[in-house]
Design goal:
- A 4-stranded mixed beta sheet has the order 1-4-3-2, covered by helices on one side. The chain has a 4-stranded mixed beta sheet with strand order 5-8-7-6, covered by helices on one side.
- The chain is an alpha/beta fold.
- The chain is built from 2 helices and 8 strands; from the N terminus they run βαββββαβββ.
- The chain has one domain: Roll (2,3-Dihydroxybiphenyl 1,2-Dioxygenase, domain 1), CATH 3.10.180.10.
- It is globular and about 45 Å long.
- The N and C termini lie far apart (about 35 Å).
């Protein structure tokens, strides 16, 4: 493997209701997600720059996708201050499970929430 390549190149958050989950993430991040279907899997993709080489991913609903709070933890970018995103979570149908807390001066802050599908998700920001 090329040592300069990103070790991660895609993530999927398992959902049981694609429309509900899409609305939740669009609401808390103030974004628009593109919907698609691939091989019987319904998806909603987070915005990304195809020329920018940045990691992206999406929501996935299929027989093999089972939402779980014990699944992989995804840390979303909450910059410049994750309070802006965190303040929308409960109104959008989620639940804050760990409020904003400082990791260190060098790393910044983090918080956890449960989305509308029961997935545990995290936020990170410098402030």
């Amino acid at each position: 493997m090329d040592a300069s390549a990103n070790i991660l190149n895609w993530f999927e958050i398992s959902v049981s209701d694609i429309a509900r989950a899409k609305k939740f993430y669009e609401t808390i991040f103030s974004i628009q997600m593109e919907e698609m279907e691939m091989g019987g899997m319904k998806m909603a993709v987070f915005p990304y720059d195809p020329m920018g080489g940045k990691l992206s991913g999406g929501l996935a609903q299929s027989d093999m996708h089972k939402p779980s709070a014990d699944g992989v933890k995804v840390y979303f970018n909450g910059n410049p201050d994750l309070d802006a995103v965190l303040s929308k979570v409960e109104a959008a149908g989620g639940k804050v499970t760990m409020p904003k807390g400082k990791i260190s001066d060098d790393i910044g802050y983090m918080a956890f929430f449960i989305d509308t599908e029961g997935n545990a998700v995290a936020l990170h920001s410098r402030n």
